[in-house]
Design brief:
single chain, about 600 residues, alpha+beta, five-stranded mixed β-sheet, 29 helices
Length: about 600
């Protein structure tokens, strides 16, 4: 039996299997059940081929080690702040180092978070620690934080919640903090007894940021007001009274008291509740709450309604005291956190950007013409200005709309320091507009490249744009890197969608109908180049241009009759799909993630070495 010795042999075998599956899937009736299975197999084979050809590399999220989780969890549920000796802290930090340090740039703080209201109901340390959480704030690597991936995927990757262990990247912690999340307040201002580890920059943050400002945020107050009753009560109707939720647990009641206690402390200028408190210092209602909580823990037949009423009364009392409260300006907090976070992330490094060309008058002129948010950007932020659509294809007519696409970069200091999602897409589109535009931030642009967006790939393949920055030119020189099977599939998807719209006949007899036809022929021409490994000439010429311009401008009759055009397009598309399935070689399956990541880091002015 022959042996397979090289990577190329594996790729060849994967390609052969994938091409055979492509032909099979294409021939099967789309309505059959087996077609769905065939499509799943096709996707699996693509993933295998991508693994082999090296194009499966993607976003590299923090990966925590779980092999010591059992011992780590046991330690967490054995201790309360008062039992944290230096020896115990060393054990905790050893677990944290093993679990997380290899996955991130550095750990900023490790805190043992408890619920004091639960603790005061317990007599034994093991019971007190039952609901403990190890809360870790960490700093990710540049190539993770600045990765060309969407906010949703980053949050899934950067917020690790195991119930007893909660690890969160600095951006998300600051985002939650500025929105008033109570747990984040408790962690930042945790008592010394609950702190297992804190970096110097973390110590500095808690020293220079007044807890009264954070507790006084509207988000913080509203969060406490809403959550302190949300788990223990409910409304039976929109205007009905707030009633006890029978499913409320003992822990829910403890948390309700904890949140109302936060509001009480805000009114009286006290720090967040983060450790065991003195019952003697509580107001009368709260003391009564402690007593009945202790009774409820020992005797489950104790009325939940009584304790529910105490929470509601204390909440009503504190709410009345807050009626004239002046909230902290959230912009003030965000500006402070932005400056601090930039310093933490850069650690003394300089941000280096390429200079603008000496003569960039034309760029300024076109920015003014586009106006809106684009006109307010600094010219150094512009990476590309292009006329898209028919103007870029060389297929425009006097009636053609002007459609600009702008690729820009947000200022690096803003990206590094923000504690909220930044606006990264600006669009001005519609039939009433003199001209349309879409402006996309560099990160969004990279995401679209990696997904194989037709419009974005055409920008990279095309030449002669209105303005190209040195960073854009450096990327567009690598045009062949963007020839992938993912890109081909996106072009095919656009063609199929146009066929679907034509079949509906919704736009029959309108310019839109002509546009659907010309796009089909234009994209099929590009697919033909791409599957042969050639960069498609986005700007049409020769016979292809002549034929499309006839579709655009001449009466739809004869060989341009709508039915004839549809039949011609379908036949050409069928032939194209057969050619795709009969290839001996395939392109790489996916875009080069590392190429886009390194380019994005260079656009940010950050050293791409990781």
């Amino acid at each position: 039996m022959d042996t397979v010795d090289t990577k190329e042999d594996f790729i060849a075998m994967a390609t052969e299997a994938l091409q055979a599956q492509t032909r099979l899937t294409h021939q099967l009736p789309k309505s059959s059940k087996v077609h769905e299975k065939a499509c799943e197999t096709l996707d699996n084979l693509r993933e295998i081929k991508a693994e082999l050809d090296g194009s499966s590399v993607n976003f590299d999220p923090p990966q925590i080690k779980r092999d010591q989780f059992t011992e780590f969890r046991q330690l967490t549920l054995m201790h309360v702040p008062s039992s944290l000796t230096e020896e115990v802290k060393v054990k905790f930090n050893s677990f944290v180092t093993h679990t997380l340090n290899a996955a991130c740039r550095k750990v900023l703080c490790v805190t043992l978070v408890t619920c004091p209201w639960y603790q005061v109901t317990q007599q034994e340390r093991g019971e007190m620690a039952r609901h403990n959480v190890i809360f870790i704030v960490y700093l990710s690597h540049d190539h993770q934080y600045l990765a060309p991936t969407n906010h949703h995927d980053q949050e899934k990757a950067f917020v690790i919640d195991e119930g007893w262990l909660y690890a969160v990247e600095l951006y998300h912690f600051l985002h939650f903090l500025s929105r008033g999340r109570t747990r984040c307040l408790e962690v930042l201002y945790a008592p010394t007894s609950a702190v297992l580890y804190e970096d110097k920059v973390w110590q500095n943050l808690r020293k220079i940021l007044d807890y009264k400002d954070l507790m006084g945020l509207q988000g913080s107050v509203f969060s406490c007001l809403g959550q302190c009753t949300g788990k223990i009560g409910k409304k039976t109707s929109k205007k009905g009274p707030f009633r006890l939720r029978e499913t409320a647990t003992f822990q829910d009641f403890c948390n309700s008291f904890r949140l109302v206690h936060h509001l009480h402390n805000l009114v009286h200028g006290l720090p967040p509740l983060t450790d065991v408190f003195s019952v003697d210092d509580l107001p009368v209602l709260a003391k009564e709450g402690v007593t009945i909580l202790q009774k409820l823990y020992r005797d489950h037949d104790t009325s939940k309604r009584d304790i529910f009423n105490i929470v509601m009364k204390w909440n009503e009392e504190v709410t009345g005291q807050l009626s004239k409260f002046r909230y902290t300006d959230v912009n003030k907090i965000e500006q402070f956190l932005q400056k601090w976070q930039v310093d933490v992330r850069l650690e003394g490094r300089a941000v280096v950007h390429q200079a603008l060309p000496d003569d960039h008058t034309s760029l300024v002129d076109v920015m003014k013409k586009i106006g809106g948010p684009v006109g307010k950007l600094d010219p150094s932020q512009i990476l590309l200005v292009a006329r898209a659509g028919s103007h870029m294809y060389g297929l425009s007519t006097p009636e053609s709309d002007v459609d600009y696409i702008v690729i820009f970069r947000e200022k690096t200091e803003t990206v590094l320091g923000t504690c909220k999602a930044l606006k990264d897409i600006y669009e001005n589109r519609g039939p009433t507009k003199d001209f349309e535009y879409g402006a996309y931030e560099a990160k969004v642009f990279c995401e679209m490249v990696l997904k194989g967006s037709v419009v974005i790939l055409e920008l990279l393949f095309a030449e002669g744009h209105e303005y190209t920055s040195p960073q854009w030119q450096a990327l567009s020189e690598k045009k062949k890197a963007f020839l992938t099977e993912t890109g081909i599939q996106q072009f095919i998807g656009l063609v199929k969608n146009n066929f679907h719209l034509l079949k509906q006949e919704k736009h029959r007899g309108t310019p839109r109908d002509r546009k659907l036809f010309y796009q089909i022929f234009h994209k099929m021409d590009s697919i033909g180049y791409m599957m042969r490994g050639d960069v498609p000439p986005i700007r049409c010429s020769g016979d292809v241009r002549d034929y499309i311009m006839r579709i655009r401008t001449q009466p739809l009759q004869g060989d341009l009759d709508r039915d004839v055009l549809s039949q011609t397009a379908q036949q050409k598309f069928e032939q194209l799909q057969q050619e795709l399935g009969s290839r001996v070689k395939r392109l790489k399956e996916n875009m080069d993630y590392t190429l886009m990541l390194d380019w994005l880091l260079s656009v940010r002015g950050i050293d791409g070495r990781r």
